[in-house]
Design a protein that fits this description.
The chain has about 250 residues and is of the alpha/beta class. It contains 11 helices and 10 strands. A 6-stranded mixed β-sheet has the order 1-2-3-5-7-10, with helices on both faces. The protein has a 4-stranded mixed β-sheet with strand order 4-6-8-9. Helix 1 links the parallel strand 2 and strand 3. Helix 4 packs across helix 5 and helix 9 runs antiparallel to helix 10.
Length: about 250
């Protein structure tokens, strides 16, 4: 099953298939599409797996092994790539909370997010080559954008597994948190990103003209939220005046 939690502008999407280590089946794709539609308007989106063993362990081989023709394989790959593209193009920041290992298609889902936050004991592998196939959900291209073409070929071409520390070192993961504080940590990061400026910053980073970037700033500048925040800062920094006739 798939659970969608909506709370104060933050959408948390949890893939909960413990019997399959949160692997993605065709029905999971249906639920992902519906959940992404339902999350529209959220100011930040988190995707995670249930439990602490697997983020997403890839495609559900027991079910997907029924796809035996080029047409069937093509249709499945196009559909899941489209879902990963929706994650990547979600207007607000998207965080992959890597609560467990991300292998194969799971690693592809992870790199579709804007930011990856990992528990310190997890591992990541683009290990589709162990099945004599390759990433098909956009993961190879996104991996190359993160770590460079040479390293992407090394990782995906060999199926090499990296731990969280190495993934952070090479830029595949953005933050590594201790297992004991992982849940609190990723929620804190997600909550900090659940704001309109972060959404505008994502849009600018994704590529707009200088004039469009300035227009984004100007819209935020004239908004009530900016002036309310500015007033709070001014009031916080204002020094109290001494009472009339008082001494210093």
């Amino acid at each position: 099953m798939l659970d969608l939690e909506l709370d104060n502008g933050l959408a948390v999407l949890t893939i909960d298939r413990p019997h399959a280590r949160n692997a993605i089946a065709l029905d999971t794709m249906d639920q992902l599409e519906k959940a992404l539609d339902a999350a529209a308007g959220a100011q930040a989106l988190v995707i995670r797996g249930a439990g602490d063993k697997a983020f997403v362990s890839g495609g559900d081989l027991k079910e997907l092994s029924a796809l035996r023709t080029i047409a069937e394989a093509t249709a499945m790959a196009k559909r899941m790539r489209s879902i990963c593209d929706q994650l990547a193009s979600f207007p607000a920041p998207v965080i992959a909370a890597l609560n467990g290992h991300a292998f194969g298609g799971g690693a592809e889902v992870a790199v579709a997010a804007d930011i990856r936050v990992a528990a310190s004991d997890i591992k990541i592998a683009f290990n589709q080559v162990t099945l004599e196939i390759m990433p098909a959900w956009g993961g190879a291209e996104r991996l190359a954008a993160l770590v460079g073409k040479s390293r992407a070929l090394l990782l995906a071409g060999s199926g090499q597994t990296v731990d969280a520390a190495e993934a952070e070192r090479i830029g595949l993961v953005d933050a590594v948190l201790p297992r004991a504080s992982f849940e609190q940590g990723w929620r804190s990061i997600a909550a900090a990103l659940a704001n309109q400026p972060a959404t505008e910053i994502k849009r600018v980073i994704s590529g707009v003209s200088p004039d469009e970037a300035i227009a984004s700033f100007a819209r935020l500048w004239v908004a009530d939220a900016h002036w309310q925040a500015a007033e709070r800062v001014v009031n916080r920094n204002a020094k109290p005046r001494p009472a009339a006739g008082g001494t210093t």
